[in-house]
Design goal:
127 residues; mainly alpha; two-stranded antiparallel ribbon; 5 helices; 4% strand
């Protein structure tokens, strides 16, 4: 699923990872001396960047969306999964409404995602 960008180009998880890395650097910087300072700070910077990359949301094609949602359903409790689907449907509907209110043409990808979400929701709601 699409993870919302909360802090500029970063998701919430990426922001937290970066904040922890910068916090460690800020805390350790005055305590280190000489070349050790630069080696440790550089290493922390690399680890922080790798952590941010680790939490990068993966792109899912529309063709794979249904499969991904079914896998998510098997790992979540029924009502929690339905609640997550309701939220995703609301997000997609809001994006479609915003596009329409701005006079933009309908995005076929958004329409397709909405259809898949409704299909999965109806399937799991009837269980």
């Amino acid at each position: 699923m699409i993870e919302e960008k909360v802090f500029g180009p970063l998701t919430f998880k990426q922001f937290i990872c970066g904040a922890i890395g910068v916090g460690f650097m800020f805390f350790l910087e005055p305590k280190l001396v000489g070349i050790t300072k630069y080696v440790v700070l550089f290493s922390l910077g690399v680890v922080t960047m790798l952590g941010i990359q680790r939490f990068k949301p993966k792109d899912i094609s529309i063709e794979d969306l249904e499969t991904e949602l079914e896998m998510k359903a098997s790992s979540m409790e029924g009502e929690a999964f339905l609640q997550m689907l309701r939220q995703k449907i609301a997000n997609v509907s809001a994006q479609m409404s915003i596009r329409k209110s701005r006079g933009l043409s309908e995005d076929p990808k958004l329409s397709e995602v909405a259809k898949v979400l409704h299909k999965i929701f109806d399937k799991h709601q009837s269980r």
